[in-house]
What does this fold into?
Amino acid sequence: MEAGSESPRSIRSYHKGGSGTLTGGGIQKIYSGSNIPNLKEYKRKLDSRLGQCILLCLITLATLLCLYGFIHGAVHDTLYTYVNRTHQIVHELETAVDENFGGVRVIHAPISVQNETAEKEMDTGKKWLTSEELMDYSQLLTKTRSTIWHLFGFNLVLAFILAAVLFLIHFANAEGTYVKFLYRGVLIVCLLFLVAQFLFLLHPCLVAAFTFPSMVDRLFVEAYPRDEYQIRGIEDAFSCQFNPNPHYVEFGLASPCLLKLKNSSLPAYGVVLMMLITLVPFVFAVFTYAWSVCIKDKKVVQNARRRVELNNQRRVPIPNQPPEYSMSSPPQTRKANPEFV
It folds into this structure.
């Protein structure tokens, strides 16, 4: 046999003793990385994702604040007017000298008169509002309304500014060091505002949301004095009654004013929801860092990512539909049989 005419050795000769049932192989993607993430990669991820996250949060918060502002505004003016009117009545009673009106404790009266007033108050079982208490209610109502609308305005303005910057970067393809500094500066301002907004939502908004139901009970059920003229005005404005007949309420013929006033006030769950939305960008930034450090290297996460990738590879593409089944083509109507015409 001439040189070079020898048949090449088979692959089986290289694998003596094998069963010949070798399966698998190919290139597989390995989901692993170092425990210490690359800071440049982390900054790149934040630059490309954190802006959209903050923008969505600002738009959502502005929408909720506007909604709750209008809902709370319906009852705010009514309660504010009633509290101020009642405060005037109580102030006139408290400033009276050496007189006792139905158990109201007079500030300028002697100690003996005040003690007698307290004893009479315990005998009658009536609880009386004080000017300090009503002043606190008035200030809380004013601060809550002002805070809601101011936060709404700041959220709306920052959302417009951030949307304009994102448009320049992602759609107008603006590049350069100054653009990057501008973008990161806007992000920092937004994050600082979210921190301040969280504190304002905590106080006075959340405090007011928990105080309003007890305040309504205190003003109209538990304590005195009560301005009957203002009460009738509230009943006419809200089409309700403070002492309705239970049978009328059961059949929907009457509506209790207390329930309407409480439902129209700022809800506590709404304030808590807005506080959680305020924290979303910070949680997103921490999760992005934690994903690069430890989460993506977990065995469960790696297996899930492999399964998703395999499912995407095995997915069969849907063939193009024939012209007669195309959604764009008009439906074909059957011609009538001339025998039945």
The radius of gyration is 36 Å. The chain has ten helices and two strands. The longest strand covers residues 127-128.
